[in-house]
Amino acid sequence: MNKKKTSRFDDLIDAARSRQQRDKLQPTEDQPISQSKSTDPAYIRTTIYLPKQLHRQLKAAAISQERQMSDIVAELIEQWLVAGQQSKEKID
After folding, report:
1. Are 90 and 83 in contact, with CB atoms under 8 Å apart?
2. What is the C-alpha to C-alpha distance for residues 75 and 83, in angstroms, rounded to an integer?
3. Which GO terms describe its biological process (predicted)?
4. Global pTM exceeds 0.85
């Protein structure tokens, strides 16, 4: 006995469900799951204001080095903080 269709869209819904199941990617041990910075709890979003020309130069440099602007800025801030700490230690 065949199941009676209750809606004219049942075939379409069944097709969509089977496609969803087929298209689901199963993570494997070889494929680490990475988070984007926007969803990674180790990162926080912040806003800074840069002169337009400096922003353009930073963006061009990031593209040419195939890096993200946020990575470059974070690296430079870390260097600046270390240099400031070293200067403070020399004074003390």
Report:
1. no
2. 12
3. regulation of DNA-templated transcription
4. no
Backbone phi, psi, residue 14, to 5°: -60, -40
Distance separating alpha carbons of residues 46 and 44, to the nearest angstrom: 6
Residues 77, 84 contacting (CB under 8 angstroms): no
Output the CA–CA distances (angstroms, integers) from residue 51 to 48, 54, 58, 59, in the order listed. 10, 5, 11, 12
Tokens of 47: 């806003």
Report the alpha-carbon distance of residue 55 to residue 49 in Å, rounded.
Answer: 9
- What the block records as the tokens of 45 is 């979003």
Q: Which amino acid is at 50?
A: L
Specify the residue for token string 């209750």: 6
Task: Give the pLDDT of the chain (92 residues) as one tens digit per residue.
Answer: 556 667 788 888 888 888 777 777 666 666 667 789 999 999 999 999 999 999 999 999 999 999 999 999 999 999 999 998 888 777 77
